[in-house]
């Protein structure tokens, strides 16, 4: 069999060597908290301003479009995660359905996604932290609140962004269950802050603020300043606000009852978050003209402050400071597991696939991951990171849709604890919707994505294809 088409059997994927199996400690409440913690974060707290600048009041429609695409992907994830209860997410499913080389591409894209999500959220968190510190009279030097790249006001390093990555990495190193429990508490704080924002903004709702509803049109266009605008341009960025449920699938191996709890965690977290997002977006764009808050690094706090609720603005900013790290935790968790599984499969050096005997988690890989993410967060801006992270995620979601279709056709009789309804529509919806969103991304982002994967393919051809378990004869290809 050609190396690029080698596939791992599901039986092999779900059997683990004694020293490299992760410890099962989580149940469905932890998974829903992990999903909501990952999904509700920088996207609604900060990117709503970026989206409004591109779509105007129709940013609500952009949220809906991105959410619908994610619903298709979430249903596909739920079926595959319960059928293949192993860490690795889209990378693992692709290895079983699409072949080794495509699995590498998806794993490499997931590394891009998770690394940049954590870095982008850290930058978004730093925006709220800096605003909060300034509001209490303890403003940090400008040179230490902005990286040198991708910003109009370049500094030396975004020190708060680097610091929060280190704090979250330390939490994860303490252990999966312990960090999941802290995450659940912080998720409650974050959701309560959004409810408080809606309560403040809703009384100021003015239909006039929604006119014109779609000032830049639906499809992606370029305005007079060379900026890509339109509902789809906004949706391609706001898509960042919805994914996170895929981080739940990386917890498959650490879930006590994966066949039941993964479905609840993935689908449940998506439903909760779509409702939250639509309500918050409507309250934001209805309370004031979108142009007033579109450029703010802390748009929700800015809106509350402008509406005369200085105390509420401080509370919202404080809640973001406390609770946005739940997104960092979920994605750093997912990234370390992707790295871990790829190393366990031989795609990356196997020395990295070490599980702490005391913690039952990959402490070494978590530390390596944190260093890489901290460097990126300290140097780059939010918008630049979010767009490129979206490209990696869209590639993964396309692969999950394709894997769903391939496994339904090739292995129709395999047990599926959860079956995606109308699976041909779900699979095709995930694939076509994500392709449309990818096309709507900035051209520079598309180019950088292909450069990243071009470099990844070189690594695969030179190292990974010779060192996988199948290539070493440790396992027979499916």
TrEMBL record:
Keywords: Membrane, Transmembrane, Transmembrane helix, Transport. It holds the Pfam family AA_permease_2. Gene3D superfamilies: Amino acid/polyamine transporter I. GO terms for cellular component: membrane. It is a multi-pass membrane protein. It is found in: Membrane. The keyword Transmembrane applies. It comes from the Bacteria. Its main location: membrane. The chain crosses the membrane at residues 31-52, 58-80, 101-128, 156-175, 182-205, 225-245, 266-291, 311-334, 363-382, 388-409, 421-439, 445-463. InterPro entries: AA/rel_permease1. GO terms for molecular function: amino acid transmembrane transporter activity. PANTHER family: CATIONIC AMINO ACID TRANSPORTER 4 (PTHR43243:SF4), INNER MEMBRANE TRANSPORTER YGJI-RELATED (PTHR43243). This is APA family basic amino acid/polyamine antiporter. It comes from Brevundimonas variabilis.
